[in-house]
Each structure stands twice: as C-alpha cells, then as structure tokens.
C-alpha cells in the first residue's frame, strides 16, 4: 500500500473480511477444504483493521506468543516475505495453526477491536501468510555447523514436529520415531482433509526432512525398542506421544456393531482413506443416521465426516449447552451450514441395538446445567423421567482421550502423575535426566497449539541441556 | 549405533519397505511368507504380532509372528487369503516388498515353565500356537498339541509340532488323524491326563468351545483373540473385547486373555461388521482384473 499510513479512525471504518468458503451444499458431499483462504486484496484490507496496539494483548493471548502486530503490519505493507519470516520465528507450523487454532479463545479473544465489533481475523491472516510462504519461500538447509549432539523424539505429532524443527535448526541430529505408517499424529489421522489438507502436513514434514531431520515410521517405542534403548543411543529424548487412548461412555451397548470411537472413525477415513473404499481397501460404515457424542473439535470433525460419507441425518449430542462447547466456533458454524443438527443438554444412557446387534438408537436423558464443575463449566445434571431414544444406525463416541500406557509401562523408572500422564518439571524434564516430555502426554488432552508451544519451549530447554553435556 | 535393537536411520529396509524372502504355499489358501523385518525379529516373543500394510491404499492387517530369525533379520507370517487384502499379500513373489511392517505388538504370552500344557490350534491358529508350544517346551513344560482342520490338507505345522511335542491331529472328515473337532480330542485329554493349562487359537467358535470345555473342569485356559484392529497401539479402540465384564483392547492388553472371561459371542459378532464391505471389495478386485 502506498501513501500515508491509515489513521486509527480510517482503520475503524473497515469491517472484518469474510473468509471465502465452498458452498455448503456442494462441500458436504466432498472432503475438499471448506475455507478457500484470503486473496491478497482481502488480506491487505483485513490487515488494515489492526490498530498496532502498543500493548499487544493479542500476543499475550497466543500460547506461543507470535508477534502478531509485526506480521500483520508486513501484510499491510505488501511485504509478504517479511510477514512469513516474522511468523516462522515464533511458529513452526503456521499453515496448521492458521487452520486449527481456536483463535476466538486466544489471540482474537484478546484483540481490542473485539470489544466493539469483530476482532481482527488473525487466524485467517496467519493462514494467508503461511500458504504464501509454502509456494514462495525456499526450503531451509541443514545448519552448516552440526552440534555433534543427537536427540530422539517419540511421536511425530504437532509437538514432536515442532521440537524437531527447533532442534535441527540449532544443529542437533534429530530422529523422530512414529508408531503409525505416516508422520503427523493427530494432524494426519484425526483432523479431516476438509479442515486441514494432508498436503499441508506433508509439506511441513518435507521441510523438516530438508533440515536434516530423520523420520522413522512404524517404530513403537515400548514395543519395537524401549526408552532405555533410545537413552543409550541419543544424548536426549523428547517424549511427545500424545494422549492417544480413547475414552468410552461406560454405558451398555458400546460393543454393538455401528459404534465407533472418534479415533477409529476418523483414522479409518483420514489415515486409511476409507472414504475412497473400495479404491482404498479399508472400509468404514456409511451410516444414514449418525449420532456423535461430544462437544469438542473431534466431535465436530466426526459429525461433518459423517455428512460427507452420505448420512442424511448427522447429529451432535452434547450434555451441556452451546456456549460450553469446546469446539472452535467456526467449525460449529460450518457444521450447521452443512446440515448437522445439534441436541444440547442431552446425556447418553445406553446404546440400543436390534436382534443382530446393529445399532438402532441412542437412549438419553435431558440435562439441566447446575453449578460450575472442576472444568469451570456448568455441570450437566440429568432430569428425571426425561428418557427418550434418538433413532440412529451409527454412534461415534467423541468424549475425549487419556494417556496411552504403551511407552510408560515399558519404562518403569519413568515417574507418572496419578492419572497416568508423565510428570515433568518446569523445564519439561521428566525424572530421568535428559528425558523430556510435552504436549498431551503431560497436559492431558489439549490442543495442537499447546503441544506445539511445548515442543518449541522444551526444544530450547533440551538445547541448553545439550550444551552443558 | 550398531545395536540391532535400535532402529537404524539409514537402513534400506526402512526406506524401501520390507522384502519378501520367500512365499511358500501351505494349503490351497494359506501361505508362509518370510519377510525382512530386523527390528521386529530382534525382540519379538511368542504371542506377539505385527501389523502390515502392503502399500498406498492398502489396509493395515494384524498378523501373528509364527517364527523369527534374529540373525537373518526375518520373521515368518502365515497368511490365509480370506479377503482382498490377504489375497494381495499371498500373491507377493520373492523380492517384492511390503511397505509397512510395525511391531512386535501385543503382550508376549504368559508361559508356564512346568506341568502339562495342551496347545489347541484350529486352522491358521496353528501359526499362533506354534511359537507358544515350542517355547513352552524349551521352558520345561510338557506339551501336548492338538491341531485341527476341516481336511488333511488344512492341517498346518504338523511335522513341526511332532518334532518337539506329542501331537493329536483332528479333521472334520477324518482324512487325517481322528475324525471330529479339536474340542473332542481336548475333552479326551482332560479326562485322561492331568492338564494344568490350555492355550488355544483358531476360529472364535472353536475358542469358545474350548473355553466351555475347560471351564467345567476349572482348567486355566488362555486364548489368542483376533478382533478387527486398525492401529494396533491402543489408539482406535476397534479391537475392544469384553473380558470378565470389562472392556479390554486386544492390541495392547492382549491379544491373549483368560478364556473363561471372554465374551466370545460379542467378538464373533463384531468380526462380522464389515461382511458386506468385504464382498464389495472382493467384487471390486474381480472387476479390476476383468
């Protein structure tokens, strides 16, 4: 943009730019990405809305403290390379977080423009810059001066990938071990193509490999080899295995045919490409009436997947109300546009089946919201004599995950919390010297950006540790 | 860096997949594949399995590790062609590669070191029972193997079993050994011998019948379950089985469980989930080949 910088008053007259999306009718039949991305013109207009506050509250709202005003100012100035360089210093996977972060609870919640009207679309701008960078920035090369130190990373999810990049840039020899046949963790098996195309993850992985990171798939630490094997061979270890074990409701009927965990449902469709069956070999049930239990992003991903697999009725059943849903507001909005229905304040009691043990319905009770519970959200309390059955042929349980004991049970020396998560100190180190941990395996189920924040922060701690060796 | 128990980042087998060293036809639809998988071969124990994925678009299939050779870095998989994915695997020629082999998965078998163990195998369940029976013998238990199949042609590992254990062969049609099912032979053994433990692997109905026969006599019995599985690391929950009224995951808690607590009806029912899809996949292959 040429000429004088805009005055604050001029900036305030610009309204929030809408993200262009695919038509809801068309998109609910395909797995193509829903958000099409800002054009350069839209991005510049949106960037002009930023008031460049002296005290940037948006940065405080970001788990990895991205220097938001700087990269937005670069966009406004038409300096996209500058925007990309600034962004990438703070955030290793901006094309991912620009798509999956719950901005409305983080940076955008803290934006002063949100006090009167809509906040700056920081997430959309981040995505714009990241996508530009993908096509225009050169890949990095391995550092010229190797440190001579090596680090093993267990798990190629967002935390592990972020840590790998940070450590490789500092000259360390990094090897990531991944249990599945593809890297990416939840970015590959969990988050669907219509929200985060596989190509984005592949590109990030490609960049890491260019930096000299080794990625070993099909290695299960705790089975193929042990944590002790890694400690013998590497100078440090970072455990970022996630919280991969699915939770169930504990109600009758979870063994019926047609009941999935969200992990299984999404893994079949995303990782194994069951949507392309029989061209791909892995099948998935194409329910006509699918009920998904839960209110988080995973539940919304599952219910929108069900629509795309052809469900004429796809319903979210959530025991609290809409404001308490942890899912991103944009995804809930998109789900509604795509014809997903919502049953709020409903709690499952049993899954019902026919004589052949196929699912026929979900028996539930209505709830009322009582006092806030440990999570700070109002606790659902069942209402007596409100039982009813929601007819369906498929039930997807998306009520969270917990720690997978596969690695920890083979490493008896590793200290755990009462809930089976890894205990780590303020530096991210476990009780074993040189063994660090971060992401969901320390925090419990959280978000991609928090895992990435851990990966970045703890990579710095590991770097310091390696320099002391 | 030369420790063979830790993965090598430069290993050609990892970059290019896992070479099939040999493929031997054991029966009309059962093949024995020797596959290069040094990391698995180095540490696997009886009772454990791998998940293989032939290539892009292929399913992840759990397969028991029948044997291994840590010096050669190979494992033996016994595969029955029952659907598209297993048919693709048995069609591999020596030199072909399987893109992904991950393991060893599951808990190793809980093996006794003394007393008498009866090892009961039905059909390709012999591939599960073979490493268990052999290791039991090595550990000092007295082992009696009961191997069943529909016809003589389907009896697997008979020579191998006979080389280290007492062997009873059963066929439905009497074309080899005694006529009848393995549970009849087992019941005779339970009546005439002092049996401390029974290990069984095979079709779900067979394992259920074995469990019923031994429960009456209070003989400890361990079965190796084969539910539908995707990741094999506890992530998907697809392999959940009910044991003693509790939900367990066969991939990480099993695959072996106390037979007397297993809900075999549920297991059998859940295995039928994709019957329709399997028929579609099979016809899709036919169209593709036509």
Report on the structure:
- The complex is a heterodimer of chains A (469) and B (290).
- Chain A contains 19 helices and 16 strands.
- Chain A is of the alpha/beta class.
- Chain A folds into three domains: 129 residues, Alpha-helical ferredoxin (Fumarate Reductase Iron-sulfur Protein, Chain B, domain 2, Orthogonal Bundle); 161 residues, FAD/NAD(P)-binding domain; 152 residues, FAD/NAD(P)-binding domain (3-Layer(bba) Sandwich), CATH 3.50.50.
- A five-stranded parallel sheet of chain A has the order 3-2-1-4-16, with helices on both faces. Chain A has a five-stranded parallel sheet with strand order 6-14-7-8-9. In chain A, strands 10, 11, 12 and 13 form a four-stranded antiparallel sheet that branches.
- The radius of gyration of chain A is 23 Å and the shape is globular.
- Chain B is globular.
- A seven-stranded mixed sheet of chain B has the order 12-11-10-9-13-14-17, with helices on both faces.
- Chain B has two domains: 89 residues, Elongation Factor Tu (Ef-tu), domain 3 (Beta Barrel), CATH 2.40.30.10; 156 residues, Nucleotide-binding domain of ferredoxin-NADP reductase (FNR) module (Rossmann fold, 3-Layer(aba) Sandwich).
- In chain B, helix 7 runs antiparallel to helix 9.
- With 290 residues, chain B is of the alpha/beta class.
- Classes of the chains: A alpha/beta (469), B alpha/beta (290).
- Chains A and B meet through helix 13, strand 5 and helix 14 of A and helix 2, strand 8, helix 9 and helix 10 of B.
Task: Supply the key terms.
heterodimer, A: 469 residues, alpha/beta, Fumarate Reductase Iron-sulfur Protein, Chain B, domain 2, FAD/NAD(P)-binding domain, five-stranded parallel β-sheet, 19 helices, 16 strands, globular, B: 290 residues, Elongation Factor Tu (Ef-tu), domain 3, Rossmann fold, 2 domains, seven-stranded mixed β-sheet, five-stranded antiparallel β-sheet, 17 strands
């Amino acid at each position: 943009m040429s000429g004088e910088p805009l005055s604050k008053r001029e900036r305030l007259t610009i309204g929030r730019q809408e993200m262009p999306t695919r038509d809801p009718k068309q998109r609910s039949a395909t797995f193509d990405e829903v958000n099409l991305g800002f054009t350069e013109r839209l991005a510049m207009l949106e960037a002009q809305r930023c008031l460049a506050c002296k005290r940037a509250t948006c940065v405080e709202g970001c788990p990895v403290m991205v220097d938001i005003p700087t990269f937005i100012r670069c966009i406004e100035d038409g300096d996209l390379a500058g925007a990309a360089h600034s962004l990438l210093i703070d955030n290793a996977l901006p094309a991912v977080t620009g798509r999956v972060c719950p901005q409305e609870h983080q940076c955008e919640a803290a934006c002063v423009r949100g006090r009167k009207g809509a906040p700056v679309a920081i997430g959309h701008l981040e995505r714009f810059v990241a996508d530009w960078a993908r096509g225009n920035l050169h890949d990095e090369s391995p550092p010229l001066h190797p440190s001579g130190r090596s680090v093993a990373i267990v798990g190629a999810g967002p935390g592990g990938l972020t840590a790998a990049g940070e450590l490789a840039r500092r000259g360390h020899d990094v090897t990531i071990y991944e249990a599945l046949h593809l890297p990416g963790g939840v970015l590959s098996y969990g988050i669907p193509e219509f929200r985060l195309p596989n190509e984005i993850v592949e590109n990030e992985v490609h960049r890491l490999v260019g930096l000299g990171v080794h990625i070993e798939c099909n290695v299960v630490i705790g089975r193929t080899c042990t944590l002790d094997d890694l400690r013998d061979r590497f100078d440090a270890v970072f455990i970022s295995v996630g919280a991969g074990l699915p939770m169930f409701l504990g109600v009758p009927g979870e063994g019926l045919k047609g009941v999935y965990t969200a992990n299984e449902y999404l893994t079949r469709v995303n990782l194994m490409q069951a949507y392309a069956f029989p061209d791909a070999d892995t099948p998935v049930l194409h329910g006509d009436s699918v009920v998904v239990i839960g209110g988080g992003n995973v539940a919304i991903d599952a219910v929108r997947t069900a629509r795309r697999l052809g469900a004429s009725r796809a319903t979210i059943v959530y025991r609290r109300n809409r404001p308490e849903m942890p899912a991103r507001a944009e995804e809930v909005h998109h789900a509604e546009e795509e014809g997903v229905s919502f049953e709020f304040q409903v709690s499952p009691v049993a899954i019902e089946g026919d004589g052949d043990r196929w699912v026929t319905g979900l028996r539930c009770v209505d709830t009322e919201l009582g006092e806030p519970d440990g999570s700070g959200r109002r606790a659902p309390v069942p209402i007596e004599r409100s039982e009813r059955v929601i007819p369906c042929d498929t039930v997807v349980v998306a009520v969270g995950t917990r720690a997978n004991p596969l690695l920890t049970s083979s490493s008896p020396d590793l200290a755990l919390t009462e809930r089976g998560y890894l205990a780590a100190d303020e530096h991210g180190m476990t009780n074993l010297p040189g063994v660090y941990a971060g992401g969901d395996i320390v925090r419990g189920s959280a978000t991609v950006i928090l895992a990435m924040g851990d990966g970045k922060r703890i990579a710095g701690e590991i770097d310091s540790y390696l320099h002391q060796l | 860096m030369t420790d063979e128990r830790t993965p090598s980042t430069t290993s050609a087998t990892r970059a290019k997949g896992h070479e099939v060293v040999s493929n031997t036809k054991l029966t009309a639809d059962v093949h024995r594949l020797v596959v290069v998988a040094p990391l698995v071969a180095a540490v696997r124990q009886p009772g454990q399995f791998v998940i293989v994925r032939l290539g892009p678009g292929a399913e992840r299939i759990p397969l028991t590790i029948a044997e291994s050779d840590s010096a050669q870095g190979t494992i033996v998989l016994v595969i029955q062609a029952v659907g598209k994915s297993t048919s693709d695997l048995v069609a591999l020629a020596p030199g072909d590669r399987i893109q992904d082999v991950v393991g060893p998965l599951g808990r190793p078998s809980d093996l006794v070191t003394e007393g008498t163990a009866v090892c009961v195998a039905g059909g390709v369940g012999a591939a599960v029972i073979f490493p268990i029976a052999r290791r039991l013998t090595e550990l000092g238990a007295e082992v009696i193997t009961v191997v069943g199949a529909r016809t003589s042609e389907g009896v697997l590992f008979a020579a191998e079993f006979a080389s280290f254990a007492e062997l009873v062969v059963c066929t439905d049609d009497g074309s080899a050994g005694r006529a009848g099912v393995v549970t009849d032979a087992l019941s005779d053994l339970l009546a005439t011998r002092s049996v401390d433990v029974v290990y069984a692997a095979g079709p779900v109905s067979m394992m259920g019948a074995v469990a019923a026969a031994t429960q009456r006599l209070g003989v400890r019995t361990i079965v190796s379950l084969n539910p539908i599985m995707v990741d094999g690391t506890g992530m998907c929950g697809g392999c959940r089985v009910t044991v003693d009224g509790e939900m367990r995951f066969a991939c990480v808690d099993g695959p072996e469980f106390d037979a007397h607590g297993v809900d075999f009806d549920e297991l059998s029912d859940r295995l039928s989930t994709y019957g329709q899809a399997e028929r579609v996949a099979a016809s899709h292959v036919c169209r593709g080949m036509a």
